[in-house]
Amino acid sequence: MPDTPQSYSHHTRWDPLFHFFVLPMFFLAALTVVIHLFVHRGHPLHGILVTVFAIAVLIALFKIRLYALKVQDRVIRLEERLRLAVLLPEGLRSRIPELTERQLIALRFASDGELVGLAQKALNEKLSPDEIKKSVKNWQADNWRV
Q1: Could you write out the three-class secondary structure of 113-141?
Q2: Integer CA distances (angstroms), 107 to 46, 58, 65, 80, 144, in order
Q3: Nearest Cα residue to 110 out of 11, 4, 14, 1
Q4: Which among 141, 145, 121 is positioned nearest to 132, based on CA atoms?
Q5: DSSP 3-state of 8
Q6: How many CA atoms lie within 13 A of 97 on its CB side?
Q7: What is the mean pLDDT of each run of 10 residues along the chain (146 residues)?
């Protein structure tokens, strides 16, 4: 559990090992390889291959991270659609597919008591995810997402 409760102003999750160690080290390694390529021109093919490999590893690192976030987004979308199907009145249930993925992800922070009103407002006024989050009064933390 995080030390600080989540709210609109404090809901971004950081993974210190990934964000403050792995990413900087990979960037530093890629930068070092590129600098080495231009400083030591004795074996250009070797330098080019190592540079391409370093860039490929960096791209792979980002893609792996983005794949995990996309899976989390899909699970959140499913959870929120199920929650809305249970909580919304019959007339609004048919409008659930009108909500965008980003809107559904933002709605996860709303309590059950305010979800119906906020979902209806999001549908009628086409609220942005940021506007939805700012409208949440009883913030429900999402401590599982990283």
Answers
A1: HHHHHHHHHHHHHCCCHHHHHHHCCCCCC
A2: 51, 33, 23, 7, 15
A3: 11
A4: 121
A5: coil
A6: 1
A7: 58 77 87 81 78 87 90 92 95 95 94 95 95 92 72
| H-state helical runs in 5-111 | 16-17, 23-39, 44-87, 90-93, 101-107
Beta bridge partners of 7: 10
Nearest to 115, CA basis, from 72, 74, 76, 85:
85
Which uninterrupted H or E stretch holds 112? Answer: helix 112-125
